[in-house]
Amino acid sequence: MAEVVGGAGAGGGGGVERALRAAAPHEVFEEVRAVLARDHGAVGAELLMADYAAARLQPVTAAPYTADSVSAHNGAEGRAFGAQEPYVVPGERGTAVHLPVTVRGDRLGVLSVLFPAGVPVGGLLGPLRDVADALAHEILVADRDTDFFLQARRTRRLTLAAEMQWQLLPGRSCSRPEYDLGAQLQPAYAIFGDSFDWSASADHLTLTVNNGMGEGVEAALLTSLAVSALRNARRAGLGLADQAALADQALYGHYQGRQHLPTLLLRFALDTGEVEAVDAGSPRLWRLRGATVEPVALEAQLPLGMFEDTVYTCQRFRVLPGDRLLLLSDGVYDVLSPAGEPYGTRALTRAVLNTRLLPPSQVPKALLDELPGHRGGVDAADDAMVVCLDWHGRPGPASDGRER
């Protein structure tokens, strides 16, 4: 009988990490196989990477596309990936242990380990999770020097624009005690210009979303310039309004107003839940508080790059522990039903309530999967993006759940 097993054990992580650091980037998983066999008695192991659409788990093989993928939502591997807990499947031919491969909340895939039939695996779960965690960290490092794991993430070829966009992103999910984040782009293999970015310090989380304009490589180039300018300003220590102003100048200086980019910038104070916001265009912000879904009203300012020397100002609001925020591109809220009703009118509220029990890492894809049904099967006219943030806050007087 299969079971999901919670709780991480201790022990063994340091030796695994040293072994993986010594391996060549493209041989990291082969080293994991050797460690699992030598130190834990495994008779087989397989690594499956989540694909760009977050729909399939793609086996890592020497040559890409040479093994069948499995669902990221169903089956034993999908259960481990979705629950983010080990999933044990005993069988006559052996016991399989499926473990999430995740780093700081970013779900990369699943490590499946096979043991001889009858071998008790309960006491191995802690060390096996250490191996999976060490593998996750090492994959991120290896990606700088090899395409091996990046190739394994794709079930088909990306367009050039999509390649540019995915390389620009910080990840698809992130977790800290104060918040959980998840994000997804669609169509994953042919995205144009929609993009998101985040960065956290000891006291703040900065989150930006860009509602890309245009198509193909031109849209990706526009977004790439904007994101790079925003990062440059943020890393120089500038405030949120000045970050928007610098990116605005960079876009206007290059495009002279011919292209512009609607952007939403948010900066959260982790201690208090105070939020600074610059609404530079059309990305929308919605909030689920209790059972109430409503847009967060912000004063729209000019998109980045539309006019020279635009001055931006910050607005402020507060998030409370338990709040869920959703940041949406117009490829979501403006999608029309066959009757001409925008998705953001009523269908979005239903979808947000229907997904309220899902973790933020799963919410964006669940909302995006609703769009084809709302369109009535009509092909999408625009790319789409959803970012979901669950706010937990820090314990203390400023996070006691009362509005201020």
Give a brief description.
The chain is built from 11 helices and 18 strands. With 404 residues, it is α+β, with helices and mostly antiparallel strands. The strands form 3 sheets. It has a 7-stranded antiparallel beta sheet, sandwiched between helices. Strands 8-9-18-17-14-15 form a 6-stranded antiparallel beta sheet.
Describe the overall structure.
- The protein is globular and about 65 Å long.
- The strands form 3 sheets. A 7-stranded antiparallel β-sheet has the order 1-5-6-7-2-3-4, with helices on both faces. Strands 8-9-18-17-14-15 form a 6-stranded antiparallel β-sheet. A 5-stranded antiparallel β-sheet has the order 10-11-12-13-16, with helices on one face.
- It contains 11 helices and 18 strands.
- Strand 5 (87-89) and strand 6 form a beta hairpin.
- Helices cover 31% and strands 25% of the residues.
- It has helices at 13-22, 28-40, 75-83, 125-142, 148-152, 160-168, 216-235, 240-255, 330-333, 347-354, 363-375, and strands at 3-4, 44-50, 56-59, 70-71, 87-89, 95-103, 106-115, 173-176, 179-186, 195-200, 204-210, 263-269, 274-280, 284-289, 292-295, 315-318, 324-328, 384-391.
- With 404 residues, the protein is α+β, with helices and mostly antiparallel strands.
Pick out its properties.
404 residues; alpha+beta; seven-stranded antiparallel sheet; globular; disordered C terminus
